[in-house]
Amino acid sequence: MQPTRRRPPPPWERGAPAPKHSVGRAHRRFPAVEALDAPQRPPHRYRRAYDGAGDRRVDEGIRLRRKRSSAFDRLRRNPVRHGLIGLGVAGAAAPLAVARYSQQRVDPAHEQQVGIMPHVVPINDQAVGNAWRAVATEQAETRTTAREQVIQDKLQRYGEMGLSRELAENIYDLALQENIEPDVAFGLVRTESEFKTSATSHVGAIGLTQLMPATARGMRKGVTISDLRDPQVNLSIGFKFLRELLDHYKGDKRMALVAYNRGPGIVDRILKRGGDPDNGYADAVISGEGVHR
């Protein structure tokens, strides 16, 4: 195995070797540079290493650009002198700033601008919480107003059919839970049962939304016929079934209502054959009249 050769250092790390002489070191043999004539000057490396006057850049006329010292450096070298200068400048500028501020304060235009500036509220957790509570309160009041307006309108329209305020509130709230328009929800209950919880069709559909027991059990396991007589349960399952039909028909309200009446299987088969499954049920629900072919 051959020994690894040691790489020489880079040029900028190489130092001039000390010259050897039988009498002594080279700087003892040669006098100062200034005392010699040009032809008698020692070699360049001797002057650089030992005389202190052999700077090649100075001897050859090469001058490097000196970096300008900053105000901080000058202050660090002479803190008393430059510190007093800084204090003098600040002392001279202070009266000018005070005079300018006083002039702005007495300016009528400035006073008018200051007077119309809005009050600035500090931004902190309490301010953000208050803002959110104010927005939430306003939205709640808007929803309450809209809810009350719709309920009053439906009570006035269907009050003679036996619609009570409690039932109207249940229809409105449960419809919003399933993201169904309140008008569609009221029209559906009006068309199916005329707001009668005891309504039962000749095919066995039960309750306000006329649910078939098999359909109801598919939507909620374990539900019984007596449960479907409960307005809360019946409305909840019926509106959930309509919501699934709306999703199935990609938001097509008319097609979802027709499928609610005729069944999604029949509607899909008619559509697959290219037919039109509409039987007037959607118009009856949307109009709220409750009459269809």
Features of the shown structure:
single chain; 293 residues; mainly alpha; Lysozyme; 59% helix; elongated
Task: Describe the protein in words.
Residues 26-30 and 46-62 have low confidence and may be disordered. With 293 residues, the protein is mainly alpha-helical. It has 15 helices and no strands. It has helices at residues 26-29, 44-51, 56-59, 71-77, 79-106, 108-116, 125-158, 165-177, 182-193, 213-219, 225-228, 231-248, 253-262, 264-272, 281-287. Among the domains are: 24-58, no CATH class; 141-287, Lysozyme (Orthogonal Bundle), CATH 1.10.530.10. It is 59% helix and 0% strand.
Short account of what is shown:
The protein has 293 residues and is mostly helical.
Helix-strand layout with pairing:
Blueprint: H1 26-29, H2 44-51, H3 56-59, H4 71-77, H5 79-106, H6 108-116, H7 125-158, H8 165-177, H9 182-193, H10 213-219, H11 225-228, H12 231-248, H13 253-262, H14 264-272, H15 281-287
Number of helices: 15
Q: Provide the helix percentage.
A: 55-70%
Number of E-state strands: 0
CATH topology of the domain at 141-287: Lysozyme
Beta strand %: under 5%
Structural class designation: mainly alpha
Which descriptor suits the 3D outline?
A: elongated
Indicate the low-confidence ranges by residue numbers: 26-30, 46-62
Radius of gyration from the CA trace?
A: 49 Å
CATH architecture of the domain at 141-287: Orthogonal Bundle
User: How would you name the oligomeric state of the polypeptide chains in this document?
Assistant: single chain
**How far is it from the N-terminal to the C-terminal residue, by CA?**
106 Å
Task: Give the H and E element order.
Answer: HHHHHHHHHHHHHHH
CATH top-level class of the domain at 141-287: Mainly Alpha
Largest sheet: none
